[in-house]
Amino acid sequence: MEKLNFNEEQLKTRIHDRILFKLNNCLPHQATTNQNDAAFKPLIDNHNILDIEFFSHRKFAGKFIVSTKKLLRKLLRPIFMKQIQFNQKVIDQLYVVDRQVVDNDASNKELFKSISVEITNDIIDECKMALQEVARSNVESIRNFYEDELQTKISEQISEQIRVREDQINEQISTLKIQLNRDIKSNLYRDLAVFEGNHNNELNRYHLLLMALRENPENLDLETEVISAFESMNKSGLKTNDSI
Questions:
Q1: What is the pTM (predicted TM-score) of this model?
Q2: 202 in a structural domain
Q3: Which domain holds residue 72?
Q4: For 200, left (φ over 0), alpha (ψ -120 to 50), or beta?
Q5: Is 38 helix (H, G, I), strand (E, B) or coil?
Q6: pLDDT band at 2 (very low <50, low <70, confident <90, very high)
Q7: Is 25 helix (H, G, I), strand (E, B) or coil?
Q8: Tell me: the pLDDT tens digits for 163-182?
């Protein structure tokens, strides 16, 4: 069998270089740590909703307005503190998810490189066998054909894996946003229910807890609170009827 008129190692090197170029230019660019921290800075700076200075430009009513606002803030401080703590937990969770996405992107890029090298080696071996069978024909034209075919197949597989990974990341982010929105609503309704309970308004407390449970139906503790609120509301109604 005649010796093939092409350099196998050189062909592999050329295709590997093209794959690396494709990876570096097609994969989403990873944000640096400084960029990620800068994106979280507005959330961190504004998560403390109590950090607000009250003032008024009115000459006579200004002091009364400011004092009233400060008094209301003092009364609602327990609710605000819970919201601040929840905001901090949300920021921490987003920070963890962001770091996981960055780490996953880096590991996936290395995985794509490894897979592409294996695919290239396998296809090169198949091409070598095919070229040996037609060694007397125009080897140069066959080599060019298989180079283009290889590049097309590898590019398609890499593009497909990139698309699948992007869809997975977008789905995870969408799911997280929905869950965070429900948690925020549930916690807000729950805190308002506590506020109403402190003022002996059992009906409003029960309705607010129901709204919180609708946002977070898997919370067993919250379900227990709803049942307790329902019983308290009925007892309160009975006492009112007895007094009448």
A1: 0.37
A2: no
A3: 8-78+95-171
A4: left
A5: helix
A6: very low
A7: helix
A8: 888 888 888 888 888 888 88
